[in-house]
């Protein structure tokens, strides 16, 4: 059972978790859309794997704190489906733009919400999640510029 001091941390970690699950779902859609572009799909799969790793880490941390991991991406997943659905109609540049917007959103969420968690959770986020978020953001930005 979560202690009162963990409740805020669990809630925030679950918010991050929903965002990461949404990223995985959006990458799945983009990988499917761009399956005829093997080089692009390979890079997208690497970014997706990073987001999936963050999903796993966040679930473990929520559980360690005594909480229940968010079961799905929730509203963010629905939003990602709408954004990516629109991108599917317009092609690969739009799909990559939608992914970059998602990466921007994820980066901004982590930066904005770090002050809302305890010091140990802040350290977890800063050392395990934020560097990966910057890595996938930079990789996607570079990919978008090449396409």
Summing up helix and strand content along with how strands pair, one would put the structural category as mainly alpha
Biggest β-sheet strands, sense, barrel: none
Number of DSSP E strands: 0
The portion of residues forming beta strands comes to: under 5%
Helix content: over 70%
- At the first level of CATH, what is the class? Mainly Alpha
Terminal CA distance reads 49 Å
Task: Round the Cα radius of gyration to an integer and report it.
Answer: 16 Å
Q: Could you state the order of secondary-structure elements as H and E?
A: HHHHH
Q: If you average the pLDDT, what whole number results? A: 87
> What gross morphology would you assign?
elongated
Poorly predicted segments: none
CATH architecture: Up-down Bundle
Account of the protein in words:
This protein is mainly alpha-helical. The chain has one domain (4-146): Ferritin. The protein is 84% helix and 0% strand. It is built from five helices and no strands. The chain is elongated, with a radius of gyration of 16 Å. The N and C termini lie far apart (49 Å).
